[in-house]
Amino acid sequence: MAKNNPTMKLPVLVAITCMLAGAGAFAADKAEQGYLAPGAFDIVSILQPAPTQGDPRYDADRAIFKNTRTLVGTARWEMATNDVKTDGADMMRDFSCAVGVSLTPENAPRLLALIGKAGRDTGRSSSVAKTHFKRLRPFQIDDGNICQSKEDLTHSFDYPSGHTTWGWTWASILAELAPDRASAILARGRAYGESRIVCGAHNSSAVESGYLTASATLAAVRTTTKYRADFAAARAELAALRKTGSAPAPNVCQAETNLISQNIFHAVTP
How far apart are CA 190 and CA 209, in angstroms? Predict the structure, then answer.
């Protein structure tokens, strides 16, 4: 097994470091270096300004937040609550059904190290944009239940969604590593972002900007020599694991697929 192989010690250490980062994993610790030099990529020039009063997007955000409060207590709400978790082990579990094999930090350390490092770049972009736009979260504008502690969220801004940026970083890289599973992987990444709307932690426009933040930053990340080398190692690791690893429980995957296929906006009138 990989954990008994001396050549795997460094990737495993990196993986454990990523896991210990917890909820801050996607929020780009300035002491940690990604693939891009700090300041090398300007996400603020790419994103549309955050919606303000008088903008149709602002009105849509208000309607979506209010109407999706009807999802409180449902199975989709439970999924959104689960998706609050951002540890490496949690992300690997959440994407296992989509990839078609059970992913763990122990059986795919190079994959975890790759996405963790790229996530420092996408997370830094998200943090920079949040600080620039300084937009309030939806529950700070309208009353409504959310799926996590409001106190845990009031220290940071809404736009773009850091969770969505992190989830789409995972989805984008995994889809490239396993292109035959890309549809399922990207659907799970989309749902991970939508969980922030269901949760009430982010406005819909913040989730949309989170997808763009990850995609745009990753376009720059993929040009680096180090990323390409790490990607090749992770691809070989995942290819081998898909031949020998165990599949996730079919009933769990079917339940997840059913939830992902739900239209969370069905109760929202244009």
Answer: 12
